[in-house]
Amino acid sequence: MNFITVLLIFLALVLALAISYYFYFYKTTFPKDKVFKQLFILRTLTFFLIALFFINPKIKKNLYTIEKPTLILAVDQSKSISYLKESENIKLAYSSLKADKKLSDKFNIQHFAFGDKIRATDTLKFDDNQTIIYDAIDHLNKLNSKNSALIILSDGNQTNGNDYQYFKAKFPIYTLVAGDTALYADLKINQLNLNDFTFTGNHFPVEAFLQYDGKGAVNTTFKVTENGKLLYSQTL
Q: How many CB atoms are located within 10 Å of the residue 6 CB?
């Protein structure tokens, strides 16, 4: 409450006392016994509460709480971790982060595992058939606020989903990568479109989408063959 509101409440109390005194002590000749004084107090409270109703004071109370930022630990659970013989290294790194008292004192730590899908857990099995890093980051980005940070423990080999390298998260992302981190040039047929059914001897169109992952220029030849016979060739 501000000063003016406090002043109005004080004046309302003084006015209620003055009016009650006028009616019960100044104008009346009734004996001033115990009941009389009780009525005086009740009348004073009545006038005061009516005045408060019109003043309508508002009490504001500010509460402040200290909320620790969130640290998310997301561990890759795909079979490729075991295949690369990196499961023990991942477990060791994850255990070190969990046992770090400085981290637990400073952050509210959340534990997630991802592979085919993401789930909240701190049990490591490395038995998922796929690694979908993009979906894991997207899920955690929607689940948490800007006052968070994400640590991903993975081999970095995504087998399905969108390219996570271009995902714009609202919090910083840090990675602990296990295994071979070198990038190799990769040229592949990303998509092939053609009719599922056709008559024997008929000609039909084939649409091929080629994808190249690498930094330097490459020279190669795209060929379409049937039973060893070359049907189409193009130098790329």
A: 11
| Residue ranges, the chain, pLDDT below 70 | 1, 26-33, 180-186
Q: Do 209 and 189 touch, CB atoms closer than 8 A?
A: yes
Q: Does domain 70-177 have CATH number 3.40.50.410?
A: yes
Query: DSSP string spanning 78-122?
Result: BHHHHHTT-HHHHHHHHHHHHH-HHHHHH-EEEEEEESSS-EE--
Domain residue extents for the chain: 3-55, 70-177, 186-235
Count of CB atoms situated within 10 Å of the CB of 164 = 19
CA angle 37, 12, 45 (to 5 degrees): 30
**Residue 103's pLDDT is what?**
92
* Centroid of chain to Cα 172: 12
